[in-house]
TrEMBL record:
Residues 1-23 form the signal peptide. It holds the Pfam family Transpeptidase. It comes from Micromonospora saelicesensis. This is Membrane carboxypeptidase (Penicillin-binding protein). It catalyses: Preferential cleavage: (Ac)2-L-Lys-D-Ala-|-D-Ala. Also transpeptidation of peptidyl-alanyl moieties that are N-acyl substituents of D-alanine; [GlcNAc-(1->4)-Mur2Ac(oyl-L-Ala-gamma-D-Glu-L-Lys-D-Ala-D-Ala)](n)-di-trans,octa-cis-undecaprenyl diphosphate + beta-D-GlcNAc-(1->4)-Mur2Ac(oyl-L-Ala-gamma-D-Glu-L-Lys-D-Ala-D-Ala)-di-trans,octa-cis-undecaprenyl diphosphate = [GlcNAc-(1->4)-Mur2Ac(oyl-L-Ala-gamma-D-Glu-L-Lys-D-Ala-D-Ala)](n+1)-di-trans,octa-cis-undecaprenyl diphosphate + di-trans,octa-cis-undecaprenyl diphosphate + H(+).
Length: 685
């Protein structure tokens, strides 16, 4: 009997130690630096308002100095009364457990807090199922390794450090990992404020969170376990007998909290921000800084303890929500959405659509797409689909907003704003194999320049202009400005083999998202400097340092910093802006708009210099407006995301114009008016 009891202790200095020494030494070094998974927090732009969290294990690492002594004493009383006397392994406890097991055939563990921490840390740092199994399997070899690592760990870490790690790693039930989460979930308070009764309740959970769950309707088991811990605290001198007796007479009073998780948990007050949160997830999954692949990056988001501050501007966001009726949630299949981007940074300042961000589609009607099955739900009023961009949806045909790309390519290639063409009502293209597009109105027929052609949206002028500069050049420029082709047809037409013949590109037959279009036009507002779209203004690691990534040149840059590059010359961008003032009813610095325009109400609504472009598709299946000032660029659309053949109609084509105009007006209210920089004489022509 005695030999059996002594075996684990002998193994530590005998054959067991020799067989495992190398592996144990390596893992002990890992344990010294390994930290448990921690919740990532997403904040509003004030850096204080928590919008939601991402976690696999809800946990916030807390320093021992921020924990009440009550919880430290309670966990010692509950799990390891000789914690401050032993050196990682308690010989008395081991001997007692093995004698008891030999007599009863049971499995008393004799695990110290240090040994338990070793097991939790090995489990949490495991990267393969095999490592998880090795960390938790009930075998003598695992126990011996655990003891050896506990002994080694206590030579290099203080009792306080081990206690801190333990209390941040332990599982308390109800998805509460670590004492911060347990304090919040069960009592809606921080660990610093735990009373002896509350601390004893939580400490009692570690042994068996489900068996001693105080949130059960019957608290008998939880109360019994709590009282046991209080008695042990009294026996160890942490509580007086009278205090323990008084504490035991109290009922368990819970104040349960359910922490938000993922984008669907964004508070109702900020419901529309759920779409920006969803974009954040998609953006994050594409950032190499957070892992080698999408799965690894999302795992890092849920376990890395990041502090993420969104780039949304509350004032602009509120204006955007109001302009599309986001808070009313439409009962129409037509989605009206808007995205606002900041020129010079690419930061997304607003994302809003007339939908409720929700996973609950139960009350949504049947899809408007006749090819969808009878059980397929529509995207309204509730949806989490990335209707505004940043996800895997192709977007919507953007119509004449694409005329910006051949015009900008032409200007950057040396052509001038005064480039003139006598545009007919219908134009038969020899370059595009006899394709013969026409204008929307006979009033567009006649001599046009870039100013008047853009202001009136003259199709035949822009097909001719695209011939001169090359459709492939316009396509490549659009790509440099952030557009991506997500349908098989678009990818084929944009390919090097086909792009030269893609004449219809200038008429916007390709799908695009409002996020892409706002960001592309923002580059023009920024004098041709394109900045990747980014949904954050700051990302901090768990230690408070900025999250960084390595550039191909080996430099480390902050992930949240703008990533910009010059795509076209500043003069070309300024010239394009001068022409783009014509559609809005604004006055260009240099040329003539030709007497009328497609959105001449915009300048009056915005009340400051503004440029932009309207866009409609065949039969007005979708309608767009992209507008910008020197400070903000906004893209709005209206379309049926479920069925692109469900035409919105001419009567609703003004809706995106109104949305952008009012968003720019209200979002910029109270800010100084800035002027566009005029183009040079050379590019005016």
């Amino acid at each position: 009997m005695i030999a059996a009891a002594a075996y684990p202790l002998v193994a530590l200095t005998g054959l067991g130690a020799k067989a495992t020494a190398h592996a144990v030494d390596q893992k002990t070094r890992v344990l010294k630096t390994a930290l448990p998974a921690e919740t990532s927090y997403v904040y509003g732009p004030d850096g204080k308002t928590v919008l939601t969290m991402f976690y696999e294990e809800y946990r916030q690492y807390t320093k021992l100095s921020d924990m009440s002594p009550n919880i430290q004493q309670a966990i010692v009383a509950a799990e390891d009364s000789r914690f401050y006397q032993h050196h990682g392994v308690d010989p008395k406890g081991v001997a007692r457990a093995f004698v008891s097991n030999a007599r009863s055939g049971g499995s008393q563990g004799a695990s110290t807090l240090t040994m338990q921490y070793v097991r939790m840390a090995l489990r949490d740092s495991a990267t393969t199922p095999k490592e998880v199994q090795e960390a938790t399997q009930q075998t003598s070899i695992r126990k011996v390794k655990e003891m050896r690592m506990a002994l080694d760990l206590e030579k290099e870490m203080s009792k306080e450090q081990i206690m801190e790690r333990y209390l941040n790693s332990a599982y308390f039930g109800h998805r509460a990992y670590g004492i911060y989460a347990a304090s919040e979930i069960f009592f809606s308070k921080t660990p610093k404020d735990l009373t002896p009764v509350e601390a004893a309740t939580l400490a009692g959970l570690v042994k068996s969170p489900s068996e001693y769950d105080p949130a059960d309707s019957d608290q008998k088991e939880a109360t019994g376990r709590r009282n046991y811990v209080l008695d042990r605290m009294s026996q160890l001198g942490y509580l007086s007998p009278d205090s323990a007796a008084a504490a035991k007479s109290e009922p368990i009073r819970l104040k349960l909290t359910t922490p938000p998780h993922d984008c669907a948990a964004v508070a109702e007050k900020y419901n529309s921000w759920g779409f920006a949160c969803d974009y954040l997830k998609n953006w994050w999954s594409a950032q190499p800084a957070f892992g080698a692949n999408r799965l690894e990056r999302m795992d890092n988001l849920r376990r890395g303890g990041y502090r993420i501050v969104l780039s949304l501007d509350p004032k602009v966001q509120e204006a955007a929500e109001k302009s599309v009726g986001a808070k009313e949630a439409t009962g129409s299949p037509f989605a009206n959405g808007i995205v606002v981007s900041e020129p010079g940074t690419g930061r997304v300042k607003a994302m809003a659509v007339n939908r409720t961000y929700s996973l609950d589609l139960a009350d949504n009607p049947q899809s408007s797409n006749p090819e969808a099955g009878p059980k397929v739900k529509a995207n309204y009023p509730n949806t989490v689909a990335p209707l505004l961009g940043g996800g895997d949806l192709a977007g919507y045909q953007a119509g004449s907003t694409f005329k910006m790309f051949p015009m900008l390519a032409a200007l950057d290639s040396g052509m001038t704003l005064s480039t003139s063409f006598n545009a007919p009502y219908r134009y038969k293209s020899a370059v595009y194999d006899g394709w013969a597009p026409s204008n929307a109105s006979g009033a567009m027929t006649g001599q046009q320049t870039m100013w008047s052609g853009f202001g009136k949206s003259v199709n035949t002028y822009f097909v001719w202009l695209e011939e001169k500069v090359g459709a492939d050049r316009a396509v490549r420029l659009a790509e440099q400005l952030g557009l991506r082709w997500r349908t098989d047809v678009d990818r084929e037409q944009a390919s090097p083999a086909k792009a030269k013949k893609w004449g219809a590109f200038t008429l916007g037959v390709s799908d695009a998202t409002p996020l892409e279009m706002a960001n592309a036009y923002a580059a023009i507002a920024a004098d041709g400097r394109y900045c990747e779209a980014i949904p954050v203004q700051a990302i901090m690691n768990r230690d408070g340092t900025p999250a960084t990534y390595a550039t191909p040149g080996g430099l480390h840059r902050e992930v949240a910093k703008p990533r910009c590059r010059q795509v076209v010359s500043a003069d070309a961008a300024r010239a394009a802006t001068d022409a783009a003032r014509c559609p809005t009813g604004d006055t260009p610095a240099r040329g003539s708009c030709g007497g009328w325009s497609t959105a001449d109400s915009v300048r009056g609504t915005v009340g400051r210099p503004v440029a932009g472009k309207t866009g409609t598709t065949d039969s007005t299946r979708s309608a767009w407006f992209v507008g910008y000032t020197p400070e903000l660029a906004a893209a709005s659309f209206i379309s049926d995301p479920d069925n692109p053949f469900n035409a919105v109609g001419d009567g609703q084509s003004q809706i995106p114009i109104k949305a952008v105009s009012e968003t720019l007006r209200d979002g910029l209210k109270g800010t100084p008016t800035r002027q566009f920089t005029p183009p040079s004489d050379a590019i005016v022509g």
